[in-house]
Amino acid sequence: MASDAPLLLEVRSLGKQFPGVRALHEVDLSLAQGEVHAVIGENGAGKSTLMKILAGVQSADTGEILLDGQQVNIQSVRDAQNLGIALIHQELNLAGNLDLAANIFLGREPQRAGFIDRPALEAAAGEHLQRVGLNLPPHTIAGDLPIGRQQLVEIAKALSCNARILIMDEPTSSLSQKETDTLFSVVRDLRSEGISIIYISHRLGEVKELADRVTVLRDGENAGNLAHKEIGHDAMVKLMVGRDLDKFYERSSHAPGKPVLALDRLRTHAHPSSEISFTVRGGEIVGLAGLVGAGRTELLQTLFGVTPAIGGEMRIADQPFAPQSPLEAIRAGLALAPEDRKQQGLILQMAVRANASLASLRRDQRRGFIDRVAEETVAQDAVDQMAVKTPSLDQVTQYLSGGNQQKIVLGKWLALNPRLLLLDEPTRGIDVGAKREIYRLMELLAGEGVAILFVSSEMEEVLGMSDRALVMHEGRMSGELARDQLTEEAVMQLATGLSLAA
Amino acid sequence: MKKNILGILGLLIAIFVVTALLNPKFISAYNMQNLIKWSSLYAIMGVGVAFVIITGGIDLSIGSVIGLVASLLAFTLNVHHWNPAVALIAILLLSALIGLAHGLLITKVKLQPFVVTLCGLLIYRGIARWVTDNQSMGFPGQDRLDYIFSGQVSVTSTFALPMPLIYLTVIAILAAIFLNRTIWGRYLLALGNNEEGARYSGIQTDNLKIAAYVICSVLAGITGLLFAFELDSVQPAQTGEFYELYAIAAAVLGGCSLRGGEGTILGVIIAAAVIRLIYNSINMLGISTHLEYAILGIVILLGVAVDELVKRYVARRRTARQQAGQ
C-alpha cells in the first residue's frame, strides 16, 4: 500500500488571505512517496490556491511546508522546481510555435560554446517523451498536437526537471475519454516509479479510480480525509458540501409551463456545422453539461445576441427571435450571468449601485435622465434580495468577494423580471454560502415560472439542480437526460462523445 | 473624484497667488480678460476630447479641424460671399460629419482611434491649405459675427467678460448634465471602464462611442469659429496647429485617464485654465519664453504622477482597512 511509504511532503496549518477573502485557513496536507493523492472540493474551496503555494506561484501568509522532514521556503517557481515540485496547469503553458524538444528544455537548453546543442537537446527530450508514452519525434511542433498530448508533453517537461512531486490541476477537464485513459496509465506508471502525484479534480469518478488517498477542502479549510478503502462517491460529496446532498440542493418539482425558448437546428459561429435543437419550458431548470470547449458558452452567447446565430431558428414564447445584440435579447426577456463575471458581468471599477442598476436604467429613465430614486430602489432591492454583503451601495465592486460580485450580477437581472435566465458557470469560484443563495434563487425563480438554462462543469451542481440535463460534445447535442436518468456516469459518457449504454 | 478636482484647483490657486504677488500687473483687468478668454477656448476643446478619452479613445485631429473650420469660414464668406448663417450651419454640420466618420471607422471598421484621427490630422490640414490656396484671410465687414464670437459683455466700467467664457459656460453645463445625469453619460463611463461588460448589460457601445467622436469634433468646430474671430486672421497652414495636444493635456491633467472610464468636466476646465495660466505666468515673471514648453511638460507630468500616487495610496489603505475588518 502506497500510503505506508515514508512521508515526502507535509503541509502544516497553511493560511492565505486575499483582499476580502480568506482563501486558506490552517490547512494540512501530507503526501507519501509514490502516492496519488487527490485533493477535492467545490469551486472556491481553496484547492488552486494551495497548489499555487506549493508550486511557488503564490506565497503563504502563515504555516510551514516540510519536504523529507526538512522545513523549506518556497518563494518562487524556481524554488519549487529545485525542490522537485512541478505544477501542470489547467491551462497548458506550452509555446505552440516551438517544437517539443524546445518546449521541454525551455530556459535550460543544453549548450555548446554558447549555442544550443541541438543533438543533445533532441536526445534528452526523446527520452523524457518515452517516459510519458509519447513516441513522437522531438521536432514536432507543440501547437499541432491535440490537447491531451500537449498535457503529456507538460508532464515530460516536469520529469526533465527531476520532479518528485507532480501537481495536476483538473488535468482531464478538456480531454476525451481515450486521452483520459492514456493519462491515467501514465500516472500509474509514474506512481510505480516512486513519483508522488497530487491530483486535483471535481470528477469524483476519476478520483475513485485513481487515488490512494483523498483530502477534502471546504471554504479554505480541511473538511476531512479518506483512506483508500473509504473513497466512495457519497462520502466525498458529503465532505465537500458539508451536509447531505439533497439538503444542499433543495429542489421541488414545478409543473413545467409553456415553452419559453425553442431552438430549431440552430447553428453558432463557433461550431457552424452542428445543428442544435431543444426546448426549455417556463419553471424548468435545465442543466447544460459537457467538457470545457464543448460549445456551451458559445451557445449561451448566441442566445444572448453577443455572437449572432448563422443558421436555424429561435423562438421566445413562440415569437421568432434572432437577437443581433444583447440589448435585443434583454428586450425579449433574456438575462445572462456570464462565465467571466469580472470582464463581462460587472463594471468592476464602478460602485454596487451603478452595477446593480446598469441594465434597468434604460427602463427607468425619465426622458434620458437617470431616475435616482428608481436607481436606489433597484440597487437596494438587489442587495436585499440576494443578501449581498457590502458596506454600502457606494462600495466599488472590485473590492467585493467573488460570491457577492456574482450576487450583484444576478440582482441586476432580477430587476428586469426576465422570463429566461441564462447562467454560465454561476457558482465558479464562490464560497458555499453564496452558492446556496444562488441555488435558492434558481429554485425560487423556477417556482415563479422563469425558465432557467445553466451551464456548469461541476458535476454535483448539474446532478443536484437540473430538472433535465442537456449534454454537449464538440459543438453538438450528444444527449438529453431526464432527472431520473441523471447520473455522473451517464453525463460523462455523453460529454466525452459516447452514446448511452442502452 | 472630488479630491481630484481639489488637487488641480489648489495648483491653479497657488500659481495664481504667486504670480500676483510677484507682479501686480498680473491682476490687471486687461490681463485677466485675456487669461479668461484663452482658458475658455482651451477648455471647450478639452471638454470635447474628454468625451472621447472617457471612452478609452483619443482624437488627434482637433487642431486640424479648427484650422479647416476657420479656413472654410473665411473662404466661404470672403470669396464666395455666403450668407453668414448658412456658412456657420454648414461648417458645424461638416464638423459633425467628421466626428461621425471617425466614430464609424473606429467602431464598424475597427480601426484604432490613434490611427484614424492621426490621418484626420493630416487630411483636414491638407484640405484647408488646398481649398484656400494657403492664403491668409481675415474677416472684413463681419462686425456682427465678430461680436458674436469675440465680443465682450461689460460687467463694470473697467472689466468685461469675453464671449468665449459665455460659450464655455453653456457647453460645460450641458456636458456636465449629460455626463452625470443622463443614462447615456452613465453608459459612456461604463463602456470606458469595460466595454465588454457594458455590452453584456444591453448598452449599445458602438453608438455611444460614435456620439463621443461627434461631440468632440463639433466642439472643435465651435472652437475653430471662436479662434477665427479671436485671431481676426486665418492662416490655413498654422491656425490650430498642435491644439489637440493642449486639449488632451487639459483632459489628462483634469483627471481623465487615457485608459478610459474616468473624468469630470469641471476638472478639465480647471486644468485648461492651469495650462493657460502657466503661459501667462512665464511672461509675467520674466522667465525665458523658450522654457514655456519645458515648464508646461513638467507641470503636467508632475500633476499626473501625483494623481496616480494618491490613487494608489487610497487603494492600498482601502485594502488594509478591509483586511483589518475581517
Note the topology.
The complex is a heterodimer of chains A (502) and B (326).
Chain A: E1 7-18, E2 21-32, E3 36-40, H1 47-54, E4 62-67, E5 70-72, H2 77-82, E6 85-88, H3 100-104, E7 111-112, E8 115-116, H4 118-131, H5 147-160, E9 165-169, H6 177-192, E10 196-200, H7 204-210, E11 213-218, E12 221-226, H8 233-241, H9 245-248, E13 259-267, E14 276-281, E15 285-290, H10 296-303, E16 311-316, E17 319-320, H11 326-331, E18 334-337, H12 341-345, H13 352-357, H14 361-364, H15 372-385, H16 402-414, E19 420-424, H17 432-447, E20 451-455, H18 459-465, E21 468-473, E22 476-482, H19 488-495
Parallel strand pairs in A: 3-10, 3-11, 6-9, 9-10, 15-20, 15-21, 18-19, 19-20
Antiparallel strand pairs in A: 1-2, 1-4, 4-5, 7-8, 11-12, 13-14, 13-16, 16-17, 21-22
Helix pairs in contact in A: 4-5, 15-16
Chain B: H1 2-22, H2 29-54, H3 62-78, H4 84-107, H5 113-131, E1 137-138, H6 143-150, E2 152-154, E3 160-162, H7 163-181, H8 183-193, H9 195-200, H10 205-231, E4 233-234, H11 243-253, H12 265-284, H13 292-325
Antiparallel strand pairs in B: 1-4, 2-3
Helix pairs in contact in B: 1-12, 2-7, 2-10, 2-11, 2-12, 3-4, 3-5, 3-10, 3-11, 4-5, 4-10, 6-10, 7-8, 8-10, 11-12
Structure described in brief:
The complex is a heterodimer of chains A (502) and B (326). Chain A is built from 19 helices and 22 strands.
Name of the level-1 CATH class of chain B = Mainly Alpha
**Helix run count of chain B:** 13
Largest sheet of chain B: 2 strands, antiparallel
Following the backbone from N to C, one meets helices and strands of chain B in this order, namely: HHHHHEHEEHHHHEHHH
**Reading side by side through the largest sheet of chain A, how are the strands ordered?**
6-9-10-3-11-12
- At CATH level 3, the topology of chain B is ABC transporter involved in vitamin B12 uptake, BtuC
Percent in helix of chain B: over 70%
Number of domains of chain A: 3
What structural class do you assign from the helix and strand content of chain B? mainly alpha
Strand content of chain B: under 5%
Extended strand count of chain B? 4
Query: What is the strand arrangement across the widest sheet of chain B?
Result: 1-4
Helical percentage of chain A: 25-40%
Euclidean distance between termini CA atoms of chain B: 27 Å
